[in-house]
């Protein structure tokens, strides 16, 4: 089951990457579990995204993942966001 979750999460990351690129953003995808999945930028604005996918009404993100996202964002000068896909709907939390 973990392979399924990983695959769905990776698909969501690629979906977001394509969506941002179509909107004129530059996007770098960091494969693996590093705390930041996408780095998105346009016209001097940078965003660091941790992406989560779930088919349930609730999702889990560890305190460690949040700390990694914030630390990376502060070091990189980016705005931290969590992107969640819940039942087909994409939400962004900062």
From TrEMBL:
The keyword Hydrolase applies. The keyword Protease does not apply. Gene3D superfamilies: 3.40.1350.10. SUPFAM superfamilies: Restriction endonuclease-like (SSF52980). InterPro entries: Hjc, Hjc_arc, Restrct_endonuc-II-like, tRNA_endonuc-like_dom_sf. GO terms for molecular function: crossover junction DNA endonuclease activity; DNA binding; metal ion binding. It holds the Pfam family Hjc. NCBIfam families: Hol_resolv_Hjc. This is Holliday junction resolvase Hjc. It comes from Methanothermococcus okinawensis.
């Amino acid at each position: 089951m973990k392979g399924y979750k990983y695959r769905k999460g990776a698909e969501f990351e690629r979906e977001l990457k394509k969506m941002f690129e179509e909107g004129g953003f530059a996007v770098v995808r960091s494969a693996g579990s590093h705390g930041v999945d996408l780095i998105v930028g346009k016209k001097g604005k940078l965003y660091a995204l941790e992406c989560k996918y779930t088919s349930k009404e609730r999702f889990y993100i560890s305190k460690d993942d949040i700390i990694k996202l914030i630390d990376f964002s502060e070091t990189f000068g980016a705005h931290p966001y969590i992107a969640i896909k819940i039942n087909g709907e994409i939400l962004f939390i900062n």
